[in-house]
């Protein structure tokens, strides 16, 4: 060990040795980097995570591999490792039909993306046909030993291999437009389904919280382009208590918890901060960085960079300025994760520039 550190000291004095030492340190400390970022504790650099859809591999495979090689992820997801087979069928990212574990069937007309549910399970206005919904209990059969082995075999920060999404799952079950109506009318049968679904999600998160993953994750797309999709009062009444239980489960087991939500979600962010959410993935350019600066130091912004205009058609200078603006507005000894999504219409050179710029900032 002494000889090893003498070698590091000697090589550090040369340019390549210094670079290799830095790369060794950064590669070996992904988990600590993420934790320090979440706790606003001066990480050595901004942690990274690239989100991709199969579209990116099929359209820009060589460039995708270059990005992944030059800027490897610090955050990864654990495989599900189920003891019982999941009841889903089909491929969600190919043209055709895919049925998820809840029995909801998606129709897809574009290769590399996921489709939409066209025939909801629950059709009755009073939700009297809710018995058609079968909870996917097999998702609870997580092989904890295999999950723990996976976590022990990596220095990455590991997210659970499950992601509850109550609002979206209700849309898949009932249909988006009809669910919006029901959230206003509030038929009694809807609340029974919500209760059963929420109880299942709590059990699912608890199973994962008892493994060695570093964090749990949840998601729901709550925003349109300029507003929340539902009345914020209804959100606070029906969904905030659910999120509180999910966050409490994570923290009771010593885990962090991450959440994704697209669109304009500013009205709910103060609530998520209040509940103790550790990291939020949101469309920060849709919301506005100046609006979000008030939350600097109170929650970690898990990405992203504008994928409506900048990633598809921005100039290299605009990408660089955008990343610098994010750091200026939201970084406080931590609190930012270099995340962006390489999806449809994304310019691979711009995706590369995002991570290159972040890599040079600290």
Describe the protein's architecture and organization.
- This protein is α/β, with parallel strands linked by helices and 362 residues long.
- The protein has one domain (2-361): TIM Barrel (Alpha-Beta Barrel).
- The chain contains 15 helices and eleven strands.
- It has helices at 2-12, 15-28, 30-38, 54-70, 144-152, 166-174, 176-185, 188-209, 232-252, 269-275, 284-287, 289-292, 310-313, 316-330, 348-361; strands at residues 48-52, 75-77, 96-99, 105-108, 116-117, 157-159, 215-219, 256-261, 279-282, 300-302, 336-342.
- The strands form three sheets. A six-stranded parallel beta sheet has the order 1-11-10-9-8-7, sandwiched between helices. A three-stranded antiparallel beta sheet has the order 3-4-5, with no helix packed on it.
- Helix 10 links the parallel strand 8 (256-261) and strand 9.
- The longest helix has 22 residues, at 188-209.
- It is globular, with a radius of gyration of 21 Å.
- Mean pLDDT is 92; it is low at 1-28.
**Which CATH C-level class is it?**
Alpha Beta
Total tally of structural domains: 1
Biggest sheet, spatial arrangement of strands: 1-11-10-9-8-7
Helical/strand content category? alpha/beta
Enumerate how many helices there are, as a single number. Answer: 15
Mean of residue pLDDT values = 92
Percent helix range: 40-55%
Describe this protein with a few key phrases.
362 residues, alpha/beta, TIM Barrel, 6-stranded parallel sheet, 3-stranded antiparallel sheet, 15 helices, 11 strands, 47% helix, globular
Concise overview:
This protein is α/β, with parallel strands linked by helices and 362 residues long.
